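notes to self, project folder thing:

trying the whole complex as one job this time. last attempt i did each chain seperately and stitching them together was a nightmare. two parts in total, labels are on each line so i dont mix them up again. if this works i'll redo the older ones the same way
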Amino acid sequence: MQANNKLALVPLGDQAVLVYWAREEQAQRWAERLQADAPPWLEDVVVAYVTVGVFYQADKVSYEQVCAYLQGLPLPEVSRPAGLSGRLWSIPVCYEEPFATDLQQVAIHTGLAPAELIRLHYSVIYTVYAIGFVPGFPYLGYLPAGLSGVPRLPSPRREVPPGSVGIAGRQTGIYPLARPGGWHLIGRTPLTIVDVEQAFFPLKVGDRVRFYPISTNEFHLLAGRHLDDTFWHPCPHDQQ
Amino acid sequence: MTLPSGLRVVEAGVYSLVVDGGRPHTRHWGVPLGGAADRASWQLGNALIGNTPTAPALEITLGGTVLQALGPVALTLCGAPFTAFIDGQPLPVGCTVALRPGQHLQITGSPRGVRVYLCVAGGFMTPCCLGSHSAWHPVRPGDILPCASATITRRRRLPDELLGQLLPAESGITCRVVDGPQRSWFPGDAFFQDTYTVLPATNRMGVRLHGPPLPRPTGELLSEPVAPGAVQITHDGQPIILGVDAQTIGGYPKIAHVIRADLDKLGQLRPGDLVRFVPVSREQAEQAAHQRRRWLQQWLDRLLMAEGTPVFVNQSLTD
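result (full assembly):
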């Protein structure tokens, strides 16, 4: 690691600064380092794709001091691939009725048979690139080429059931809470992936996620379980 | 031991929410900052009733709220000049008062501003989640807002001079802004020359504005972290100023960012109000923040300490 003074820093108002990176994994690794360092003025670190938002207590530290500190942090090693957390989640998804609400629409859009697009969806390992939109919603990327490019619904649904798995553009995601949503829904996980009251937010930016298909029967057997530590295992870097 | 008391929600009103300072440390989970939209009014109300400035209070937006006291409750209203009544008797904003069990507090409407804070002695004792008492949903009829049983020792009143400073001017407001991360996407100064009108679709998530549309930039932005005060330009060229309940990440380009000294003003904007933006330097933003902080701290100190005697007394089992 080497010191550097050429971070791309841009103020976000007068209480935060954005740090832009070329690659998602650089942003993730650098943010993890900053969180571990935890300078006393640090309020929060938010990673979204290639950008890190550093929120600071502006009444205790100046923008210049924050920038000087950030410039002094070691650069992340870029040789290691994405998924720095080293956690690979295996999340069960039922792609059957009544959970695959928009499967036929997606089949028409992509020109793929439903069975083939389902197989494509669970065939790759995704990375959590951002968490937002609603508390705990993981933005997972990127979809295989054949499954990419499905637009958002013409108008959002008023309420998407929790656990719904949707796709839009190059991304897939899981709705953690019952909220309005505009993505095409192709399945649902029976697991609770967020419990706000219990401060339960298991997925972190940089985590890896793999889906596996389950039947409606298995869905009902797993219903209500939390996405706890039994659903991930360490992910050796050479397998990422 | 303090006796429990509380307020029962008879009419919820347009949007009434228990708030405090919000959740500044869980944005990385996608949890919005939240909390009081007009933090100065909320803190001053608490100080007036003798609380720590950051005690949980009820933020009443646009009014229509009716509450009934379950026991003795000492309280005050602070913020926009709402009309309020206790069993039909007027209660001006910025005055302390004690409700007797069974009495009704009715908060109707305000000619200016949109938010008033109902601060009760000791603060509302509602559940804490992720380090904050700010509620996820507005109150509903039948809800109970628990608080301590208390009565006031003497009446206090905020000076009119101070109440006037909590409101936007009738002619509209000027927001001081620094450049947003995508300022260069919008060539020229049209944004600073135009006057914008606040639209009805304004809420705690954002202030929607209407004015001469800015040319839509050709680029697409990858989603990045955002914060309250960010001025986004949507695809139709109109600005949205993000509010305290805004999402934590967003993909619209941000032309400007309202400085922290002016964020409270946003919380009192109502549909039809006029907004202008004026650019300031980072140094000017810091100076303004320093001034604003000193102004608020001086009033808080005066209300909390200068008077020496307690503002309210709890009713306890030993009384």
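what i see at first glance: The interface with chain B takes residues 10-16, 18, 43-53, 55, 58-59, 62-63, 130-137, 139, 196-197, 199, 201, 205 of chain A (CB under 8 Å).
need to look closer tmrw
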